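Propose amino acids for all 226 sites.
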C-alpha cells in the first residue's frame, strides 16, 4: 500500500513539473515528507523524471524555451521543499562539485541556468559564479573547491576566446576536470581543439544538452547505490 501511495506521489511530482504547475508540485512534495517517504527518491524519481520528460518534449519541438523555464521553476519549487530533508550521506547521492558561469563580457545565462539545475538535482555541489565572470575567477574557483566539472558559456566572438585561456590554465593544473563550453560562436571542433569535453552551440542547444544530462545522471546515482 505504501509503495502504491509513493508511486502516486511520484506521478504527481512528475506531472506537476511537465505541466509547470508549481502548486501541484509543492503539494506533492509536502505530502511525500508528511507521509514519511524518502526525499531523495522524490527528487530523482519524481522531479528529475518529470524534467526528463520535459527534455523529450523540447527535443520534439512540443515545448520551447519559455515552457522549459516554467517547468524548471516548478521543479525548483519542489526542490526547495525536499532538499533540506535529503540525507547528506545518502549512498545514492552523487559526490562531486561543479563550477559554472558565463565568461567576462557576457550576460546570457538561459543554458547556464539549466545546466546548473541538472547538476543540482543529481546532488552535486554547484558553485554558480553568475554572469560576466572574470576569467581568472573560473580557475581560482575550480582549484579552491577541487571541483570535478567546469561549465562556461559565451555568446559573442569577442568573449569566446577567454574560454580557451581558462581551459589551458585548468588543464595545466588539473587535467581531470570535465569541461563543458557553449555559445553561438562556438563550434564542436573548436571546443574539442581547445580541450573541452562537451559543447552546446547556443542557448536552446545547451538547454537540450542539459536536459539530456538528466537520464545519465539518474543512471549514475542508481549505479552508485548498488
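Proposal:
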Amino acid at each position: 500500500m505504501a509503495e502504491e501511495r509513493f508511486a502516486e506521489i511520484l506521478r504527481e511530482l512528475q506531472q506537476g513539473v511537465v505541466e509547470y504547475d508549481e502548486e501541484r508540485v509543492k503539494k506533492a512534495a509536502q505530502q511525500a515528507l508528511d507521509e514519511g517517504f524518502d526525499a531523495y527518491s522524490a527528487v530523482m524519481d519524481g522531479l528529475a523524471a518529470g524534467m526528463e520528460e520535459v527534455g523529450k518534449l523540447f527535443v520534439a519541438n512540443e515545448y520551447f524555451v519559455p515552457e522549459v523555464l516554467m517547468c524548471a521553476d516548478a521543479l525548483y519549487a519542489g526542490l526547495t521543499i525536499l532538499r533540506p530533508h535529503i540525507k547528506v550521506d545518502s549512498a545514492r547521492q552523487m559526490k562531486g562539485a561543479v563550477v559554472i558561469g558565463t565568461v567576462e563580457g557576457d550576460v546570457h545565462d538561459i543554458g547556464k541556468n539549466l545546466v546548473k539545475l541538472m547538476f543540482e538535482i543529481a546532488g552535486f555541489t554547484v558553485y554558480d559564479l553568475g554572469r560576466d565572470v572574470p576569467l581568472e575567477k573560473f580557475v581560482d574557483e575550480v582549484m579552491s573547491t577541487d571541483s570535478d566539472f567546469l561549465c562556461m558559456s559565451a555568446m559573442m566572438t569577442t568573449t569566446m576566446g577567454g574560454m580557451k585561456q581558462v581551459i589551458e590554465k585548468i588543464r595545466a593544473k588539473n587535467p581531470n576536470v570535465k569541461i563543458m563550453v557553449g555559445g553561438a560562436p562556438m563550434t564542436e571542433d573548436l571546443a574539442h581543439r581547445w580541450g573541452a569535453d562537451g559543447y552546446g552551440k547556443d542557448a536552446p542547444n545547451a538547454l537540450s544538452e542539459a536536459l539530456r544530462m538528466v537520464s545519465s545522471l539518474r543512471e549514475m546515482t542508481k549505479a552508485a547505490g548498488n
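DSSP finds nine helices and five strands in the chain. The first helix runs from residue 2 to 18.
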